[in-house]
Amino acid sequence: MAISPLKAMNGERVVVLIFVLRVLSSLPLALLPHAHSLSLLSLFSLVVEIRVDNSPSLFKTRPGASSGIILGAVTLPTVMLSKLIQLSRAVSLQQIEIGELEHMTMQFWAASACSCGVLIFLFIVAWCAANKKNPHFSCSVWDAKFSLSCVILYSAVCCISLATISHTGFNTALKLLWLLCHGFATVKLIQHLLSTFPFCASIGEANLVTSGLVLYFGDMLACTISKVCRLLIPPELVSIRYGIKRSEIGIVIQGVLLGLLIFSAVFKFLIHLWEYFWGANNSESRERKEIWRSLIFLTSLGFIMIAVAPSWMMIVLDFDLHPVPWIFEFIFSEPFKRLSLCIYWLVLIYASVLRFYNISKNSKIERILLRKYYHLLAVLMFLPILIYQPKFLDLAFGAALAVFLVLEIIRVWRIWPLGQLVHQFMSAFTDHRDSDLIIVSHFSLLLGCALPIWMSSGFNDRPLTPFAGILSLGIGDTMASMVGHKYGVLRWSKTGKKTIEGTAAGITSVLAACSVLLPLLASTGYFLTQHWFPIFIAVTTSGLLEAYTTQLDNAFIPLVFYSLLYL
Questions:
Q1: DSSP classification of residue 458
Q2: Where are the domains of the chain?
Q3: Distance, CA of 264 to CA of 297 (rounded, Å)
Q4: What is one process in the GO biological process aspect for this record (predicted)?
Q5: What pTM does this model have?
C-alpha cells in the first residue's frame, strides 16, 4: 500500500525541507535551473527515503540512526548552490572572473549527479527487495511514475544549464559524460563502504562521505586530465581547460590527501604481495613479520609523500617549490606568532587529552558528555587563530587531517609498535556511533570545523561563514548537550533524547557568540555585510536540525549552518 509523503513526514524531514526552501528563496533568477534541479532532487529523495524506510532491511547500517537519505542527498548540492549564490554576487560586483562561477556550476551539477545516482540505486534496490519478499506485490505505481518524472526533468534541466556554459555541443556531451561518471563512481563507492564497514554509518552519512570523496578526487582527476591533454596534444587540435586558480595552501592539502589515497592502495597491494611470496614461510617469528610490515609501511609512506605527491603538485598544479621547504618557509615567514601557536596547541592538547583520558577510564561520566569537552577544546584552539592567523589555521587543519588518517591506518592495520596502543587510546573516546572497524568521531569533529574554513577561501562577503563549524559544534552542540542532559525535561519526541531546553540553550549560545564575534571581526578590518535576520534563521534552522536528526551531527550541522550563512 502506498504511503503518502505528507503522512510520513517527521521532524527531521520537515527541517531539511525548510532548509532547502530557505536556500531556494534566496536564489537569483539566473540560477532558476539550479533551483528546479534541487527541488526535484529533494522530492525524489523524500520518496526514496519513505520507500526505503518501509522496506526490509537493505543494508547493514548504523543501529539507532534513521536512513537519513533526504539529508544526505541534499546537503552537498545545497552547499554548492549557496556558493553559487555568493559567487553570483561577486560576479555582479566584478570581484571574480566568470570562469570561477562556471567552475562552481560544474561542481554543483557534479554533487547533484552523485546524489541522484545514489537515489536511483536505492530506489531500484528497494523495488527489487519488495518484489522479492512478495512476488505478487508491486511497488506503488505513483512512486515509480513520480520518481521517473523527477529523473527525466532533472536530466533535462541539467542539459539546459550545461549548454549555457558550453561553447559547443561536444563540450556539453563531454560534461554530461563527466557527471555520469560521478554518479556511477558514487554508487560503486557507497556499495563498497556499506559492505566493507557494516553498522558504521547510515545511508545518508555514507552518501555524504562518498559524494564528497568523489567530488574532491574527481576534481583532482579532472585537473590531471586537463594538464596531460595540454602537454600531449597540440593546442591547435584541442583546447581543454579545467578548474580555477588555487591557493598554495589548498594545493598542499590536496597533494597530501592524494598522496595518502595512493599510499593506502599501494600499501595494501605491497602487503598482499609480501604475504603471497614470503608470508607462507612460518619459520620467521611473529615479531619479525610485524617489523617487516612496519618497514614496508614507513618506506612506502615516505616515498609517496616525499616524491610522488609533490611531483603531481608541481606538474599538474604548477606548484613552484617542493611542499616540505615551502611549509617551513611559510611557518618561518612569521616565526614568533606561528611557532608560539604551535606551542600553545601542543600544551593544550597534551594537558586536555591526558586529563580526559584518565577521566574516561576512571569516571562514570557519560561518554557523550565527555566528548563535548573536546568540542569546547576546539573553540579554545581554533577560534582565536581563525580571527588573527586564518591562513596558518588552514594549513594546520590539513596537517591534523593527515596525521589522523595516518594514525587510523596504523590502528586498522595494527602496524607495530603503535597499532595496538593507538587502538586502545582511541577506544577510550568512542561511543555508539563508532565501531572497531573504523572510528569516525575525531574525523567528523575536525572536518566539521575545517570544511567551512577551507570552503570560505577566496572571495567571501559573509565573514561569519568560516566560523560555521566552530560555532555550531564547539558552542551550539556542546551547550545543547550539557544543558539538555542536566536540565532538560521537555523532549522533542517520545523516543528521542533531545530536549527543548537543550535546543534553546544551543541556539541562544550561538546567537550570543555571533553578537560578540561580529564587532570583534569589524575591529580587525572585516567589512560586515551580514544582517541579523538571516543569521537568526541560520542559527535556528541548524539548531532544530540538531534536535531532530539521528545522523552524525558533526558532519551535517556545520554544512547546513555554513550554507544558510551565505544567504
A1: S
A2: 9-244, 246-334+408-428, 430-566
A3: 10
A4: dolichyl monophosphate biosynthetic process
A5: 0.91
